[in-house]
Design brief:
CATH class of the largest domain: Mainly Alpha
CATH superfamily of the largest domain: ABC transporter type 1, transmembrane domain
CATH topology of the largest domain: ABC transporter transmembrane region fold
Number of strands: 10
Largest sheet: 6 strands, mixed
Bound molecules: adenosine-5'-diphosphate
Number of helices: 21
Helix content: 55-70%
CATH architecture of the largest domain: Up-down Bundle
Length: about 600
């Protein structure tokens, strides 16, 4: 059962992002030290200027010190920017380490998620979360710590200093601050949806793009380019609108806040100027005030921008944590191991299952003794693939029991369960990598000899030898550079290499020439030998060789027996057999 997660509180996601920082206390401390040092060095220039105006310029006897104060002012800026450079270096290293950690956690999590989770997700959306959203949420860290911290320190430090210098002028100068705070609060509480919508629109566009690029052949084949372009433009327009909605508010908010800040300067001019005229404030202190005020409001401005970052970071973080909080596959990391040696006795007892509301399998019973070949036949949609998926525990059966050598698959660890089976799917999927990498997926420690033996047994050796770099030839995205029959044989070789006691095989329906067909059939026979094999069979020869046939119809086992028994019975199987193999010379085999 998926864990039920409390809806995140507004700051929840952000605090969780910060929890990733605790692994790097040294970097955090170094960054903090730089930030404090920078804040302190900011005080030098206004104070030096105030001192020059009040103490040096009016007293010719002290003009000799002038150079020292100018140099001091320069040193202040040098220190500030030097420390800033160091801080950026540290921050970048820090940030990249944290991004790496979050991505790694995210990927590990994605691998533990049940297939059901993927059924309801678009690939492009998941990709956007791992690649873009992680970076976006990370900006909360860069801007939150790097700029936010410096800004807060500077605002507090200078604020206190202003009040020490002249409390009444300081009060006027900081009058706009509460208004700025209220403005920021309103912007961030009302803005959350706008930012979330923008992230979702971006993700939608990515998902569509991913789909269309994967399906480029179909789009071309159906001359659907214009239609798809329209669809792309519609999604793209949604992103444009969502971004504009976000930016429109920013266009009001940012200058509005700027205006409020500037009223602070005008207030200082009015009341500070008045105080100078009344002799309550020296000209030097007045200048100091103005200089400090710019240093006071400049980080306030940065905090405002930070508010925007936080909003978009929070929207991204919510999307990332939604993945991290999803429930794992049961026994993804725990569970028992199968007793060795695995014999491969598989039993389904009254197994029922549904993907959604409609039942897909109903009280299915199958008994496959060690070494037997079990053929599953039935019309499309009968539930044959689902039977294999339940055995591999890609999905969990709703009721009933599935056991291997008497142990319920439910209690087995995923590693032990999947370690004892090889799955050859109908459409052979090859990863974008070399032939070797694709084979080693089955057994990482396989040596050169074993690889070639498997290829030979799968009748894949001759064409792999003919490849430009043999085992080290890249087979391209989805193995497009190989023919269908070649890909099938490579995936059979992969399963042979795994040498698992249980085999799940979904025979390819795509027709190949008769010579290739013979080679594939021969390779499959070899693959099925001496192991318990479940075959979704499409070839009559496979079915005839099976020890037992289970005929599925609308999720139920309607007949069971050998080819000859079932033909003699003249039921569903006999009918299916006649219909499926009508055209083939094999149809003669369907006569009882
Ligand atoms: P078969 O392999 O016999 O053609 P399947 O086992 O693939 O049949 O499918 C059985 C039924 O379950 C079909 O009606 C199919 O539409 C449905 N189905 C298959 N996979 C899913 C899924 N991931 N989510 C929802 N329904 C599914």
């Amino acid at each position: 059962m998926p864990r039920v997660i409390d809806p995140p509180t507004p700051m929840h996601s952000i605090l969780r992002v910060f929890s990733y920082l605790r692994h790097y206390p040294g970097l955090a401390a170094a960054q903090l030290a730089c930030a404090v040092g920078m804040t302190l060095s900011v005080f030098i220039f206004p104070n030096a200027t105030g001192h020059v105006i009040d103490e040096i310029i009016p007293q010719p006897a002290r003009h000799g010190d002038f150079g020292f104060w100018v140099a001091l002012a320069l040193a202040g800026f040098l220190a500030r920017d030097g420390l800033n450079s160091l801080r950026i270096f540290i921050n970048n290293a820090f940030e990249q380490k944290v991004i790496y950690d979050i991505r790694s956690d995210l990927y590990a999590k994605i691998q533990r998620l049940p297939l059901r989770w993927f059924d309801n997700r678009r690939t492009g959306d998941v990709m956007t979360r791992v690649v873009e959203d992680v970076t976006n949420m990370e900006r909360v860290l860069i801007d939150g710590i790097e700029q936010g911290l410096v800004a807060v320190l500077q605002v507090l430090g200078i604020g206190v200093f202003l009040f020490i210098l002249n409390p009444s002028v300081a009060m006027w100068a900081t009058l706009p601050v509460p208004l700025l705070a209220v403005g920021a609060w309103i912007y961030s509480t009302c803005g959350r949806d706008r930012y979330r919508n923008q992230r979702e629109a971006a993700s939608d566009l990515n998902a569509l793009l991913h789909d269309n690029i994967s399906g480029v052949r179909q789009i071309k084949a159906y001359a659907a380019e214009e239609l798809e372009h329209d669809r792309f433009n519609r999604h793209s327009d949604r992103l444009r609108q969502a971004t504009l909605r976000m930016m429109r508010w920013w266009a009001l908010y940012s200058p509005g806040m700027s205006f409020l800040r500037m009223t602070g300067y005008v207030l200082v001019l009015a009341f500070g100027g008045g105080a100078v005229m009344r002799g309550e404030l020296t000209l030097g202190d007045f200048t100091r005030f103005l200089l400090f005020l710019s240093l006071f409001y400049e980080p306030v401005d940065r905090l405002n921008q930070l508010n925007q970052m936080l909003l978009s970071g929070r929207a991204a973080a919510d999307r990332v944590f939604e993945i991290l909080d999803a429930g794992d596959e049961p026994n993804a990391t725990t569970g028992e191991a199968l007793p060795r040696p695995v014999k491969g006795h598989v039993r389904f007892e009254r197994v029922s299952f549904s993907y959604q509301d409609q039942p897909t399998l109903h009280e299915v019973g199958i008994d496959a003794r060690p070494g037997e070949t079990i053929a599953l036949v039935g019309p499309t949609g009968a539930g044959k693939t689902t039977v294999l998926s339940l055995l591999a525990r890609f999905y969990e059966a709703t009721s009933g029991s599935i056991t291997i050598d008497g142990v319920p698959v439910r209690s087995l660890s995923k590693a032990s369960l999947r370690g004892c089976m090889a799955y050859v799917t109908q459409e052979a999927f090859l990863f974008n990598g070399t032939v070797r990498e694709n084979l080693l997926l089955a057994r990482r420690d396989a040596g050169e000899r074993e690889l070639w033996d498997a290829l030979t047994a799968a009748h894949a050796e001759p064409f792999v030898r003919a490849l430009p770099k043999q085992l080290d030839t890249r087979v391209g995205e989805r193995g497009v550079k190989l023919s269908g029959g070649e890909k099938q044989r490579l995936s059979i070789a992969r399963a042979l290499l795994k040498n698992a006691p249980i085999l799940l095989l979904d025979e390819a329906t795509a027709s190949v020439d008769s010579e290739t067909e013979r080679l594939i059939q021969d390779a499959l026979d070899r693959l099925m030998r001496d192991r318990t094999a479940f075959v979704i069979a499409h070839r009559l020869s496979t079915i005839r060789n099976a020890d037992r046939i289970y005929v599925l119809d609308r999720g139920r086992v309607v007949e069971e027996g050998t080819h000859d028994d079932l033909l003699a019975r003249g039921g569903k199987y006999a009918e299916l057999c006649r219909k499926s193999f009508l055209a083939a010379e094999e149809s003669a085999g369907c006569q009882a």
